[in-house]
Protein backbone atom coordinates (compact mmCIF):
# COMPACT_ATOMS: atom_id res chain seq x y z
CA UNK A 1 0.00 0.00 0.00
CA UNK A 2 1.53 3.35 -1.05
CA UNK A 3 2.11 5.82 1.78
CA UNK A 4 2.48 9.57 1.80
CA UNK A 5 5.97 11.00 2.34
CA UNK A 6 7.17 10.59 5.89
CA UNK A 7 6.67 13.40 8.36
CA UNK A 8 9.21 14.18 11.03
CA UNK A 9 6.80 14.52 13.94
CA UNK A 10 6.21 11.22 15.78
CA UNK A 11 2.55 10.35 16.29
CA UNK A 12 2.27 10.36 20.08
CA UNK A 13 -1.55 10.14 20.00
CA UNK A 14 -1.41 6.85 18.14
CA UNK A 15 1.34 5.55 20.42
CA UNK A 16 -0.70 6.35 23.53
CA UNK A 17 -3.78 4.58 22.19
CA UNK A 18 -1.78 1.52 21.14
CA UNK A 19 -0.48 1.31 24.71
CA UNK A 20 -3.97 1.79 26.16
CA UNK A 21 -5.45 -0.90 23.92
CA UNK A 22 -2.60 -3.30 24.65
CA UNK A 23 -1.86 -3.89 20.96
CA UNK A 24 1.44 -4.93 19.53
CA UNK A 25 2.34 -3.31 16.23
CA UNK A 26 1.72 -6.61 14.46
CA UNK A 27 -1.57 -7.06 16.31
CA UNK A 28 -2.85 -3.66 15.21
CA UNK A 29 -1.85 -4.30 11.59
CA UNK A 30 -3.61 -7.67 11.64
CA UNK A 31 -6.84 -6.14 12.98
CA UNK A 32 -6.79 -3.40 10.33
CA UNK A 33 -6.38 -6.03 7.61
CA UNK A 34 -9.25 -8.08 9.06
CA UNK A 35 -11.55 -5.06 9.21
CA UNK A 36 -10.61 -4.23 5.65
CA UNK A 37 -11.74 -7.68 4.56
CA UNK A 38 -15.18 -6.94 6.03
CA UNK A 39 -15.41 -4.12 3.51
CA UNK A 40 -14.00 -6.06 0.58
CA UNK A 41 -10.54 -4.49 0.85
CA UNK A 42 -7.38 -6.56 0.42
CA UNK A 43 -4.96 -4.77 2.77
CA UNK A 44 -1.45 -6.04 3.46
CA UNK A 45 -0.27 -4.10 6.51
CA UNK A 46 2.30 -5.48 8.95
CA UNK A 47 4.24 -4.33 12.00
CA UNK A 48 6.56 -2.26 9.80
CA UNK A 49 3.54 -0.32 8.50
CA UNK A 50 2.53 0.55 12.07
CA UNK A 51 6.09 1.63 12.86
CA UNK A 52 5.92 4.06 9.93
CA UNK A 53 2.60 5.44 11.18
CA UNK A 54 4.14 5.99 14.62
CA UNK A 55 7.00 7.89 12.97
CA UNK A 56 4.49 10.23 11.36
CA UNK A 57 3.60 8.78 7.97
CA UNK A 58 -0.06 9.06 6.97
CA UNK A 59 -1.87 6.00 5.56
CA UNK A 60 -3.89 6.67 2.44
CA UNK A 61 -7.49 6.14 1.42
CA UNK A 62 -9.90 4.60 3.90
CA UNK A 63 -7.22 3.22 6.22
CA UNK A 64 -7.32 6.06 8.83
CA UNK A 65 -11.03 5.37 9.40
CA UNK A 66 -10.41 1.63 9.62
CA UNK A 67 -7.67 2.16 12.21
CA UNK A 68 -10.01 4.40 14.21
CA UNK A 69 -12.71 1.75 14.12
CA UNK A 70 -10.28 -0.92 15.38
CA UNK A 71 -9.64 1.25 18.45
CA UNK A 72 -13.35 2.08 18.82
CA UNK A 73 -14.18 -1.61 19.08
CA UNK A 74 -11.32 -2.35 21.44
CA UNK A 75 -11.76 0.58 23.82
CA UNK A 76 -15.55 0.87 23.73
CA UNK A 77 -15.68 4.57 22.88
CA UNK A 78 -15.96 6.23 19.52
CA UNK A 79 -12.68 7.49 18.13
CA UNK A 80 -12.03 9.34 14.88
CA UNK A 81 -8.96 9.41 12.66
CA UNK A 82 -8.09 12.82 14.13
CA UNK A 83 -8.13 11.34 17.64
CA UNK A 84 -5.34 9.05 16.45
CA UNK A 85 -3.33 11.88 14.95
CA UNK A 86 -4.20 10.75 11.42
CA UNK A 87 -5.62 12.68 8.50
CA UNK A 88 -9.36 12.42 8.01
CA UNK A 89 -10.70 10.84 4.84
CA UNK A 90 -13.96 9.84 3.19
CA UNK A 91 -14.09 6.29 4.54
CA UNK A 92 -16.22 3.36 3.52
CA UNK A 93 -16.95 3.14 7.23
CA UNK A 94 -18.63 6.56 7.22
CA UNK A 95 -22.26 6.35 8.24
CA UNK A 96 -21.90 3.73 10.98
CA UNK A 97 -21.00 6.38 13.57
CA UNK A 98 -23.53 7.09 16.32
CA UNK A 99 -23.33 10.87 16.55
CA UNK A 100 -22.63 12.64 19.83
CA UNK A 101 -25.32 15.26 19.23
CA UNK A 102 -28.16 16.28 16.87
CA UNK A 103 -26.05 18.62 14.76
CA UNK A 104 -23.44 15.94 14.13
CA UNK A 105 -26.23 13.47 13.34
CA UNK A 106 -27.53 15.84 10.65
CA UNK A 107 -24.02 16.22 9.24
CA UNK A 108 -23.54 12.45 8.98
CA UNK A 109 -26.93 11.57 7.51
CA UNK A 110 -26.85 14.59 5.20
CA UNK A 111 -23.53 13.38 3.85
CA UNK A 112 -25.06 9.98 3.15
CA UNK A 113 -28.03 11.49 1.32
CA UNK A 114 -25.82 13.69 -0.86
CA UNK A 115 -23.47 10.85 -1.82
CA UNK A 116 -26.33 8.45 -2.47
CA UNK A 117 -28.31 10.87 -4.62
CA UNK A 118 -25.32 11.38 -6.92
CA UNK A 119 -23.57 8.91 -9.17
CA UNK A 120 -21.72 7.19 -6.34
CA UNK A 121 -22.27 3.60 -7.43
CA UNK A 122 -19.52 2.42 -5.07
CA UNK A 123 -21.66 3.52 -2.12
CA UNK A 124 -24.20 0.87 -3.06
CA UNK A 125 -21.49 -1.79 -3.16
CA UNK A 126 -20.25 -1.30 0.41
CA UNK A 127 -20.34 -4.55 2.37
CA UNK A 128 -22.58 -5.17 5.36
CA UNK A 129 -20.52 -5.60 8.54
CA UNK A 130 -22.03 -7.48 11.50
CA UNK A 131 -19.50 -5.91 13.86
CA UNK A 132 -20.85 -2.49 12.89
CA UNK A 133 -24.08 -3.29 14.75
CA UNK A 134 -22.53 -3.41 18.20
CA UNK A 135 -21.65 0.19 19.05
CA UNK A 136 -24.81 1.88 17.67
CA UNK A 137 -27.21 -0.54 19.40
CA UNK A 138 -25.29 -0.21 22.65
CA UNK A 139 -25.17 3.59 22.46
CA UNK A 140 -28.91 3.71 21.77
CA UNK A 141 -29.69 1.39 24.66
CA UNK A 142 -27.73 3.37 27.25
CA UNK A 143 -28.44 6.77 25.72
CA UNK A 144 -31.29 9.18 26.26
CA UNK A 145 -33.04 11.78 24.14
CA UNK A 146 -30.92 14.85 23.44
CA UNK A 147 -31.60 17.65 25.90
CA UNK A 148 -32.04 20.25 23.17
CA UNK A 149 -32.80 20.03 19.48
CA UNK A 150 -34.32 23.49 18.91
CA UNK A 151 -32.54 25.81 16.48
CA UNK A 152 -33.29 29.51 16.77
CA UNK A 153 -30.12 30.72 15.07
CA UNK A 154 -28.05 29.48 12.17
CA UNK A 155 -24.48 28.27 12.74
CA UNK A 156 -22.28 29.58 9.92
CA UNK A 157 -19.12 27.67 9.04
CA UNK A 158 -16.07 29.84 8.39
CA UNK A 159 -13.89 28.06 5.80
CA UNK A 160 -10.26 27.52 6.65
CA UNK A 161 -7.43 26.78 4.26
CA UNK A 162 -4.69 24.50 5.48
CA UNK A 163 -5.98 24.80 9.07
CA UNK A 164 -8.44 22.91 11.25
CA UNK A 165 -12.06 23.89 10.74
CA UNK A 166 -12.80 27.27 12.23
CA UNK A 167 -15.26 27.54 15.12
CA UNK A 168 -18.89 28.04 14.26
CA UNK A 169 -20.36 31.48 14.71
CA UNK A 170 -24.04 31.77 15.56
CA UNK A 171 -25.66 34.43 13.40
CA UNK A 172 -29.22 35.51 14.32
CA UNK A 173 -31.71 35.16 11.51
CA UNK A 174 -32.74 38.22 9.58
CA UNK A 175 -36.55 38.08 9.81
CA UNK A 176 -36.84 40.33 6.77
CA UNK A 177 -35.10 37.82 4.50
CA UNK A 178 -37.48 36.13 2.07
CA UNK A 179 -37.00 33.32 -0.42
CA UNK A 180 -39.02 32.40 -3.44
CA UNK A 181 -41.88 30.08 -2.43
CA UNK A 182 -40.34 27.14 -4.32
CA UNK A 183 -36.97 27.42 -2.58
CA UNK A 184 -35.85 26.24 0.80
CA UNK A 185 -32.51 26.93 2.35
CA UNK A 186 -30.77 26.60 5.70
CA UNK A 187 -32.25 28.98 8.22
CA UNK A 188 -35.84 28.87 7.00
CA UNK A 189 -38.45 28.22 9.69
CA UNK A 190 -40.03 24.75 9.74
CA UNK A 191 -43.83 24.80 9.86
CA UNK A 192 -46.60 22.39 10.69
CA UNK A 193 -47.26 22.14 6.96
CA UNK A 194 -43.70 20.96 6.41
CA UNK A 195 -44.20 18.19 8.95
CA UNK A 196 -47.49 17.13 7.38
CA UNK A 197 -45.80 17.02 3.98
CA UNK A 198 -43.04 14.78 5.35
CA UNK A 199 -45.65 12.34 6.67
CA UNK A 200 -47.42 12.28 3.30
CA UNK A 201 -44.16 11.70 1.47
CA UNK A 202 -43.41 8.77 3.76
CA UNK A 203 -46.82 7.23 3.09
CA UNK A 204 -46.37 7.66 -0.66
CA UNK A 205 -42.94 6.04 -0.84
CA UNK A 206 -43.96 3.26 1.55
CA UNK A 207 -46.88 2.44 -0.72
CA UNK A 208 -44.64 2.37 -3.80
CA UNK A 209 -42.18 0.12 -1.97
CA UNK A 210 -44.90 -2.32 -0.87
CA UNK A 211 -46.41 -2.57 -4.35
CA UNK A 212 -43.45 -2.37 -6.71
CA UNK A 213 -40.28 -2.97 -4.69
CA UNK A 214 -37.56 -0.80 -3.26
CA UNK A 215 -35.84 -0.13 -6.57
CA UNK A 216 -38.85 1.60 -8.10
CA UNK A 217 -38.56 5.04 -6.49
CA UNK A 218 -35.60 4.77 -4.13
CA UNK A 219 -33.52 7.41 -5.88
CA UNK A 220 -36.43 9.84 -5.89
CA UNK A 221 -36.77 9.37 -2.13
CA UNK A 222 -33.07 9.99 -1.55
CA UNK A 223 -33.14 13.14 -3.65
CA UNK A 224 -36.12 14.36 -1.64
CA UNK A 225 -34.18 13.80 1.56
CA UNK A 226 -31.24 15.76 0.22
CA UNK A 227 -33.11 18.68 -1.31
CA UNK A 228 -36.09 19.03 1.06
CA UNK A 229 -35.46 17.34 4.38
CA UNK A 230 -31.84 18.35 4.98
CA UNK A 231 -32.62 22.09 4.58
CA UNK A 232 -35.45 21.65 7.10
CA UNK A 233 -33.09 20.04 9.59
CA UNK A 234 -30.74 22.99 9.10
CA UNK A 235 -33.59 25.45 9.42
CA UNK A 236 -35.06 26.96 12.58
CA UNK A 237 -37.59 25.38 14.90
CA UNK A 238 -38.58 25.13 18.54
CA UNK A 239 -38.30 22.07 20.75
CA UNK A 240 -41.68 20.49 19.97
CA UNK A 241 -41.42 21.04 16.23
CA UNK A 242 -37.80 19.90 16.32
CA UNK A 243 -38.69 16.59 17.98
CA UNK A 244 -41.38 15.96 15.38
CA UNK A 245 -38.99 16.92 12.60
CA UNK A 246 -36.34 14.48 13.82
CA UNK A 247 -39.03 11.79 14.14
CA UNK A 248 -40.00 12.33 10.50
CA UNK A 249 -36.32 12.32 9.50
CA UNK A 250 -35.81 9.01 11.33
CA UNK A 251 -38.81 7.47 9.58
CA UNK A 252 -37.78 8.59 6.09
CA UNK A 253 -34.16 7.59 6.66
CA UNK A 254 -35.24 4.13 7.80
CA UNK A 255 -37.37 3.89 4.66
CA UNK A 256 -34.38 4.85 2.50
CA UNK A 257 -32.49 2.06 4.24
CA UNK A 258 -35.36 -0.37 3.72
CA UNK A 259 -35.49 0.33 -0.02
CA UNK A 260 -31.71 0.00 -0.20
CA UNK A 261 -31.96 -3.35 1.60
CA UNK A 262 -34.58 -4.47 -0.92
CA UNK A 263 -32.19 -3.89 -3.83
CA UNK A 264 -29.34 -5.67 -2.00
CA UNK A 265 -27.33 -2.52 -1.23
CA UNK A 266 -26.77 -3.98 2.20
CA UNK A 267 -23.87 -1.90 3.47
CA UNK A 268 -25.66 1.30 2.49
CA UNK A 269 -28.89 0.08 4.08
CA UNK A 270 -27.03 -0.68 7.30
CA UNK A 271 -25.71 2.88 7.41
CA UNK A 272 -29.18 4.33 6.87
CA UNK A 273 -30.55 2.18 9.68
CA UNK A 274 -27.82 3.31 12.08
CA UNK A 275 -28.52 6.95 11.28
CA UNK A 276 -32.29 6.44 11.61
CA UNK A 277 -31.61 5.00 15.05
CA UNK A 278 -29.65 8.11 16.02
CA UNK A 279 -32.32 10.44 14.63
CA UNK A 280 -34.97 8.61 16.67
CA UNK A 281 -32.96 9.40 19.79
CA UNK A 282 -32.98 13.09 18.89
CA UNK A 283 -36.74 12.80 18.43
CA UNK A 284 -37.06 11.29 21.90
CA UNK A 285 -39.02 8.41 20.35
CA UNK A 286 -37.86 5.27 22.10
CA UNK A 287 -40.50 3.07 20.51
CA UNK A 288 -39.47 4.08 17.01
CA UNK A 289 -35.86 3.36 17.87
CA UNK A 290 -36.91 -0.17 18.78
CA UNK A 291 -38.58 -0.46 15.37
CA UNK A 292 -35.35 0.56 13.65
CA UNK A 293 -33.50 -2.12 15.62
CA UNK A 294 -36.08 -4.67 14.51
CA UNK A 295 -35.47 -3.58 10.92
CA UNK A 296 -31.75 -4.12 11.46
CA UNK A 297 -32.52 -7.52 12.97
CA UNK A 298 -34.54 -8.50 9.89
CA UNK A 299 -31.68 -7.53 7.59
CA UNK A 300 -29.30 -9.60 9.72
CA UNK A 301 -31.66 -12.60 9.42
CA UNK A 302 -31.84 -12.18 5.65
CA UNK A 303 -28.04 -12.14 5.45
CA UNK A 304 -27.68 -15.17 7.70
CA UNK A 305 -26.41 -13.46 10.85
CA UNK A 306 -28.79 -15.10 13.29
CA UNK A 307 -26.93 -14.44 16.52
CA UNK A 308 -26.63 -10.72 15.81
CA UNK A 309 -30.31 -10.65 14.84
CA UNK A 310 -31.31 -12.14 18.20
CA UNK A 311 -29.25 -9.57 20.07
CA UNK A 312 -30.73 -6.64 18.13
CA UNK A 313 -34.28 -7.84 18.84
CA UNK A 314 -33.49 -8.23 22.53
CA UNK A 315 -31.88 -4.78 22.73
CA UNK A 316 -35.05 -3.37 21.16
CA UNK A 317 -37.19 -5.11 23.79
CA UNK A 318 -34.96 -3.99 26.62
CA UNK A 319 -34.96 -0.42 25.34
CA UNK A 320 -38.74 0.02 25.52
CA UNK A 321 -39.59 -2.37 28.35
CA UNK A 322 -43.32 -2.91 28.78
CA UNK A 323 -44.31 0.65 27.93
CA UNK A 324 -44.82 0.07 24.20
CA UNK A 325 -48.31 -0.67 22.81
CA UNK A 326 -49.24 -4.35 22.37
CA UNK A 327 -48.78 -4.22 18.60
CA UNK A 328 -45.23 -2.93 19.03
CA UNK A 329 -44.52 -5.66 21.59
CA UNK A 330 -45.80 -8.19 19.07
CA UNK A 331 -43.47 -6.84 16.43
CA UNK A 332 -40.46 -7.06 18.76
CA UNK A 333 -41.11 -10.65 19.81
CA UNK A 334 -41.79 -11.74 16.23
CA UNK A 335 -38.42 -10.35 15.16
CA UNK A 336 -36.67 -12.40 17.83
CA UNK A 337 -38.62 -15.48 16.74
CA UNK A 338 -37.42 -15.08 13.15
CA UNK A 339 -33.81 -14.94 14.34
CA UNK A 340 -34.20 -18.07 16.48
CA UNK A 341 -35.87 -19.81 13.54
CA UNK A 342 -32.89 -19.07 11.34
CA UNK A 343 -30.61 -20.59 13.96
CA UNK A 344 -32.81 -23.69 14.24
CA UNK A 345 -33.53 -22.98 17.92
CA UNK A 346 -36.96 -24.58 18.19
CA UNK A 347 -37.74 -23.87 21.84
CA UNK A 348 -36.58 -20.26 21.79
CA UNK A 349 -38.39 -19.62 18.52
CA UNK A 350 -41.62 -21.13 19.82
CA UNK A 351 -41.41 -19.13 23.05
CA UNK A 352 -40.99 -15.88 21.14
CA UNK A 353 -43.90 -16.70 18.84
CA UNK A 354 -46.11 -17.40 21.86
CA UNK A 355 -45.15 -14.03 23.39
CA UNK A 356 -45.90 -12.30 20.10
CA UNK A 357 -49.29 -13.98 19.81
CA UNK A 358 -50.26 -13.16 23.37
CA UNK A 359 -49.21 -9.53 22.96
CA UNK A 360 -51.40 -9.14 19.87
CA UNK A 361 -54.33 -10.73 21.69
CA UNK A 362 -54.19 -7.93 24.28
CA UNK A 363 -54.55 -5.23 21.60
CA UNK A 364 -57.91 -3.46 21.52
CA UNK A 365 -59.60 -1.61 18.63
CA UNK A 366 -59.35 1.74 20.44
CA UNK A 367 -55.65 1.43 21.25
CA UNK A 368 -53.37 4.18 20.02
CA UNK A 369 -50.93 2.56 17.60
CA UNK A 370 -47.98 4.40 16.03
CA UNK A 371 -48.50 4.92 12.30
CA UNK A 372 -45.39 2.86 11.48
CA UNK A 373 -46.71 -0.20 13.37
CA UNK A 374 -50.20 -0.34 11.88
CA UNK A 375 -49.11 -2.81 9.21
CA UNK A 376 -48.56 -5.45 11.89
CA UNK A 377 -51.86 -7.32 12.12
CA UNK A 378 -53.05 -10.92 12.14
CA UNK A 379 -51.93 -11.35 8.54
CA UNK A 380 -48.41 -10.21 9.37
CA UNK A 381 -48.23 -12.40 12.47
CA UNK A 382 -49.37 -15.43 10.44
CA UNK A 383 -46.63 -14.58 7.94
CA UNK A 384 -44.05 -14.54 10.75
CA UNK A 385 -45.28 -17.94 11.95
CA UNK A 386 -45.05 -19.28 8.40
CA UNK A 387 -41.46 -18.12 7.95
CA UNK A 388 -40.39 -19.51 11.32
CA UNK A 389 -41.96 -22.92 10.74
CA UNK A 390 -40.42 -23.07 7.28
CA UNK A 391 -36.96 -22.38 8.72
CA UNK A 392 -37.55 -25.04 11.37
CA UNK A 393 -38.68 -27.46 8.62
CA UNK A 394 -42.08 -27.80 10.26
CA UNK A 395 -43.73 -27.71 6.86
CA UNK A 396 -47.34 -28.55 7.73
CA UNK A 397 -47.53 -25.69 10.24
CA UNK A 398 -45.71 -23.42 7.80
CA UNK A 399 -48.31 -24.13 5.11
CA UNK A 400 -51.23 -23.50 7.45
CA UNK A 401 -49.93 -20.13 8.59
CA UNK A 402 -48.83 -19.02 5.11
CA UNK A 403 -52.29 -19.83 3.71
CA UNK A 404 -53.93 -17.85 6.50
CA UNK A 405 -51.66 -14.88 5.87
CA UNK A 406 -52.47 -14.87 2.15
CA UNK A 407 -56.20 -15.00 2.94
CA UNK A 408 -55.95 -12.01 5.30
CA UNK A 409 -53.28 -9.90 3.58
CA UNK A 410 -54.48 -6.92 1.55
CA UNK A 411 -53.40 -6.80 -2.12
CA UNK A 412 -51.54 -3.51 -1.55
CA UNK A 413 -48.82 -5.50 0.25
CA UNK A 414 -47.85 -7.10 -3.04
CA UNK A 415 -44.22 -7.88 -2.21
CA UNK A 416 -45.10 -9.42 1.15
CA UNK A 417 -47.63 -11.62 -0.63
CA UNK A 418 -44.87 -12.80 -2.98
CA UNK A 419 -42.70 -13.74 -0.02
CA UNK A 420 -45.55 -15.58 1.66
CA UNK A 421 -46.50 -17.41 -1.52
CA UNK A 422 -42.93 -18.68 -1.85
CA UNK A 423 -42.97 -19.77 1.80
CA UNK A 424 -46.18 -21.69 1.05
CA UNK A 425 -44.61 -23.23 -2.06
CA UNK A 426 -41.58 -24.29 -0.03
CA UNK A 427 -43.82 -25.85 2.61
CA UNK A 428 -45.77 -27.75 -0.06
CA UNK A 429 -42.48 -28.97 -1.50
CA UNK A 430 -41.39 -30.12 1.95
CA UNK A 431 -44.66 -32.06 2.25
CA UNK A 432 -44.00 -33.80 -1.07
CA UNK A 433 -46.71 -31.89 -2.98
CA UNK A 434 -44.54 -31.08 -5.98
CA UNK A 435 -47.29 -30.06 -8.43
CA UNK A 436 -48.86 -27.55 -6.07
CA UNK A 437 -45.47 -26.25 -4.96
CA UNK A 438 -44.43 -25.51 -8.55
CA UNK A 439 -47.75 -23.89 -9.37
CA UNK A 440 -47.51 -21.55 -6.36
CA UNK A 441 -43.90 -20.70 -7.10
CA UNK A 442 -44.67 -19.94 -10.75
CA UNK A 443 -47.34 -17.46 -9.63
CA UNK A 444 -44.86 -15.86 -7.24
CA UNK A 445 -42.17 -15.69 -9.93
CA UNK A 446 -44.57 -13.90 -12.26
CA UNK A 447 -45.42 -11.35 -9.58
CA UNK A 448 -41.76 -10.87 -8.62
CA UNK A 449 -40.88 -10.21 -12.25
CA UNK A 450 -43.14 -7.13 -12.14
CA UNK A 451 -41.19 -5.66 -9.22
CA UNK A 452 -37.82 -4.03 -8.74
CA UNK A 453 -36.97 -6.08 -5.69
CA UNK A 454 -33.83 -8.18 -5.34
CA UNK A 455 -35.34 -9.80 -2.26
CA UNK A 456 -38.40 -10.97 -4.17
CA UNK A 457 -36.16 -12.44 -6.88
CA UNK A 458 -33.98 -14.10 -4.24
CA UNK A 459 -37.01 -15.75 -2.59
CA UNK A 460 -37.81 -17.31 -5.95
CA UNK A 461 -34.19 -18.40 -6.48
CA UNK A 462 -34.15 -19.99 -3.02
CA UNK A 463 -37.16 -22.08 -3.96
CA UNK A 464 -35.47 -23.08 -7.23
CA UNK A 465 -32.41 -24.28 -5.34
CA UNK A 466 -34.68 -26.51 -3.30
CA UNK A 467 -36.06 -27.96 -6.55
CA UNK A 468 -32.69 -29.37 -7.61
CA UNK A 469 -33.34 -32.92 -6.29
CA UNK A 470 -36.48 -33.00 -8.48
CA UNK A 471 -35.05 -31.30 -11.58
CA UNK A 472 -36.07 -34.09 -13.97
CA UNK A 473 -39.68 -34.28 -12.76
CA UNK A 474 -42.41 -33.07 -15.12
CA UNK A 475 -43.78 -30.37 -12.72
CA UNK A 476 -40.30 -28.89 -12.37
CA UNK A 477 -39.77 -28.79 -16.14
CA UNK A 478 -43.15 -27.09 -16.47
CA UNK A 479 -42.22 -24.58 -13.81
CA UNK A 480 -38.97 -23.72 -15.57
CA UNK A 481 -40.77 -23.27 -18.87
CA UNK A 482 -43.17 -20.79 -17.26
CA UNK A 483 -40.34 -18.85 -15.63
CA UNK A 484 -38.36 -18.79 -18.88
CA UNK A 485 -41.39 -17.33 -20.63
CA UNK A 486 -41.26 -14.39 -18.25
CA UNK A 487 -38.01 -13.32 -19.90
UniProtKB/TrEMBL annotation:
Source species, domain of life: Bacteria
**InterPro entries cross-referenced by the UniProt entry:** TPR-like_helical_dom_sf
Protein's recorded name: Regulatory protein
What species does this protein belong to?
Answer: Streptomyces marokkonensis
What is the phylogenetic placement of the source species in the record? Answer: Bacteria, Bacillati, Actinomycetota, Actinomycetes, Kitasatosporales
Amino acid sequence: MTERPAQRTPNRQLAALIAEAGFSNAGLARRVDQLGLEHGLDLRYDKTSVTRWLRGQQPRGTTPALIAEVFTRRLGRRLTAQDLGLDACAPVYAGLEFAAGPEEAVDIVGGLWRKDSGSHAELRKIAFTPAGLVVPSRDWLIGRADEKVARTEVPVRIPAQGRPAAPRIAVPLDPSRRRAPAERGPGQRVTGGDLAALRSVGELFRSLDDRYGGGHARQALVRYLEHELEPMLRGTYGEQTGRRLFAAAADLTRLAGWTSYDIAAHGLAQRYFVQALRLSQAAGDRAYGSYVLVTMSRQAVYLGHGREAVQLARVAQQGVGTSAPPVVQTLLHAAEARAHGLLGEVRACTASLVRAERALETARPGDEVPHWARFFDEAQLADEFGHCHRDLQQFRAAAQHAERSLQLRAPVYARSRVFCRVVLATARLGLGELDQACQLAAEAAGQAAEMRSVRAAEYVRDFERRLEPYRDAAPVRGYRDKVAALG
